[in-house]
TrEMBL record:
Residues 192-370 form the Reverse transcriptase domain. InterPro entries: DNA/RNA_pol_sf (IPR043502), Rev_trsase/Diguanyl_cyclase (IPR043128), RT_dom (IPR000477), RT_RNaseH_2 (IPR041577), Viral_Replic_Matur_Polypro (IPR051320). It comes from Trichonephila clavipes. It is an enzyme of class 2 (transferase). Its EC number is 2.7.7.49. This is RNA-directed DNA polymerase.
Amino acid sequence: MGTTEEVTPVVEYVFQLINRLKSCQELAIEKMEETKIKRKAWYDKNAIKREFSEGDLLLVLKMNRPNKLSVQWKGPGKIEKKISETNYVSRAKEDSNELEENFPCIDSNPNNFDFDEITKHSQLGNRLNVQQIEKLKEILCRYSKIFSNEPGKTHLVEHDIELINDVPIRTKPYRMSARQTDLLQEEIRKMLKYQVIEIGESDYASPMILVETPGKDHRPCIDYRKLNEVIRTQFYPLPNIEHRIETVAAAKYITLLDLTKGYWQIPLTPKAQRLVAFTTSFGTYRPLRMPFGLKNAPYYFNRLMAELLQGCEKFALPYLDDVAIFSENWDDHISHIDKVLERIRDARLTIKPAKCKFAQDSVKYLGHVVGLGKRSPAQLKVQTILDFPVPRTKTQVRAFLGIAGYYRQYIPMFSSLAAPLTELLKGKSKKGYINWTSECQKSFVQLKEKLSTNPVLYAPDFKRQFILQTDASDTGIGIVLAQRNDRGEENPILYLSKKFSDAERRFTAQLKKSVKLSFMQ
């Protein structure tokens, strides 16, 4: 007896087919959504969320009439109303003459922003968790336009020059080799590209030279010595290096920023452009931005940085074109970075990405390694001192004492140790040969040995008591400032010393104590 196949009714078969097709459709939609999310994530890898507020200026991409297939940027236009995150009402200004005056342009290409590239020297994975890195990335992406290898142009400060007399200064260009001329022409092309200079004439002209240092890139310099003699001096004190090192060293999170070609971000007044013109063997040029070598350039740059970070002194300190942002905890640090970057963006300045370091526990800062409440001499600088040859002239002795003296606060009784060397500098002659004695050699070696031990100083904690110790020898006095840590150990904060004058050496022990008290004051 044969078996018979079960026959499915037509209506039921149709419903089963519909259900199968529906399941296939749902599966296809699900896979399409997954693919869409993956593609969007890849496409938006370097995308930046942009939001505008009422009153902001922007350019609008509009169709050209009568050719609707052609588009052109129009504006700048001012946002009058915000409808949603992606829709705005803007009234464009058709007068192209207002573009340069009103639209805040920064010489930066946002497509060049790469978070991983900018932070590669920071090694964030060693000290930050994933959430902290994402928060930092969000902040940096928000200000991506200010990270550029091209200088910006600030509106906060404009360099002007006041002369003592009005006699024009013109100097013939210096002679250079064909190779140096080619190198200088290439540098001039870069400066023209950045709109730092322009081709022009002037009744004032200073010569440009090419400075070549072994192991470093060549750089063009303008010899402004004659012009500087007739420029009225403007004084603005340089920041105290020691105060900055102590302050930054106490922090647990430190970020370092470096402005891109800082001087070139300050514009010149038309009057100053005429006065600082420079000449070469192939033409005369007028700087549009502040060049190196001008007498009052540090004054204007310090003024810019002081105005830029006014009110941020408790967490951000500048020294020339370097900015240190320092904080005690992560939440404060990310907020401080946000505030400083906002100031830099609003000032239309740019930052050199390769020289930035973010959220570090210790950094190289002004020749020192600072962070986590400690500081020590930078090893590269110490090695320069250790490799210094035995001096043969007063100039060489002065050079050695200069670089070793920069770290004198790390060496107890520095003045007494260096006394035989400072004695060599006496006399009217500044460049003469010296009588190098065994005492000089001993002093020379001891100073090197003191720095070779990698000395460490601690940042002062003004909530703790200070310990002050003094000592005196036949040649000078020394002072040690220290504090006790939680384990009761004494941590040195600072070493001070003073060499006795010839008269002070003849003092009695009691009088030498009074010298100590006077020096401490």
